[in-house]
Amino acid sequence: MNPQQNIQIDLLLKVTTLIVCKEGRKNIGTGTGFFFEDAGKMYLITNRHVVVDEKKNFYPDKVVIRLNSNASDLTESKEISYELYAAEKPLWKELSDQVDLVAIEIPKPTDVIFAALNKSNLLPDDVQLGLGEQVLVVGYPKGFYDEVHNLPIVRNASIASAYGVPFRRNPFFLADSSLHPGTSGSPVFTVPKNIQTKKGGGFEIGGAARWYFLGVNSGEFGEMQLNAIWYAYLIVQLLEKK
């Protein structure tokens, strides 16, 4: 049997993409991005420092992504590029230069395999996450991935600070994992399961395993293999910003 024939790609692998940052024709860096759909518009979400980093004099003018184009042959893909500036003005939305998130509005990709997150994927208010709970980080550590089939890598992490509490007044929580550069912009998810812990005590047992989108990895916080994960609700605020 051909292992690629009619393969079913996990949804969490379809929402992410490698981002190659370019200055002119030169590749100057990589990161991770993912798709988010809201109010009929499509966005590519990533960290702010993936598209601009003033402290490092990092100013790409374009990003390139590559998406699978044949469901029965994952070795087939196509590249799509997006300009980051028009008339010297940024084409991305941001909350501030202190929040390491940007949203680039893009045309909905056609003739490719991808999926987009939306508000329904956010963690419900009545679901409780505890310290040490396992989460998944989907991305491209140091640009490493299955480049033959264009599929990202999934890393395990655990929640290392009180979830829902801004860490040191910053709107992110900490995850404990040995992540690497290149996973900047990676979406972070709960591990799929059919038992949910409810706030106030008790459990809910469902049929199909469910997962939720928790936030966006922004790189190492300090030097203790702790990573800042910006809360997912910030994306909703970002997309609502005029």
List keywords for this structure.
Thrombin, subunit H, 7-stranded antiparallel sheet, disordered N terminus, mainly beta, 2 domains, 242 residues, 3 helices, 6-stranded antiparallel barrel
Helix-strand category: mainly beta
The gyration radius over C-alpha positions equals 18 Å
Total number of domains = 2
Helical residues, percent: under 10%
Find the CATH topology of the largest domain.
Thrombin, subunit H
General form: globular
Mean pLDDT across all residues, rounded?
90
According to DSSP, the number of beta strands is 17
Work out the strand percent: 35-45%
Q: What's the number of helices?
A: 3
Main β-sheet description: 7 strands, antiparallel
Strand numbers in spatial order across the main sheet: 5-4-1-2-3-9-8
What's the SSE pattern? HEEEHEEEEEEEEEEEEEEH
In CATH, what is the class of the largest domain?
Mainly Beta
CATH architecture of the largest domain: Beta Barrel
CATH-level-4 superfamily name of the largest domain: Trypsin-like serine proteases
**Straight-line distance between termini:** 52 Å
What does the model show?
A hairpin with a 2-residue loop joins strand 2 and strand 3 (41-46). The strands form four sheets. This protein has a seven-stranded antiparallel sheet with strand order 5-4-1-2-3-9-8. The protein has a six-stranded antiparallel β-barrel with strand order 10-11-12-17-16-13. The protein has two domains: 11-106, Thrombin, subunit H (Beta Barrel); 119-240, Beta Barrel (Thrombin, subunit H), CATH 2.40.10. It is built from three helices and 17 strands. By secondary structure, the chain is mainly β. The chain has helices at residues 11-14, 48-51, 233-240; strands spanning 16-23, 26-38, 41-46, 62-68, 77-83, 85-86, 89-90, 92-93, 102-106, 134-139, 153-159, 172-176, 187-190, 193-197, 203-210, 213-220, 226-231. The longest helix is centred in the last third of the chain and has 8 residues, at 233-240.
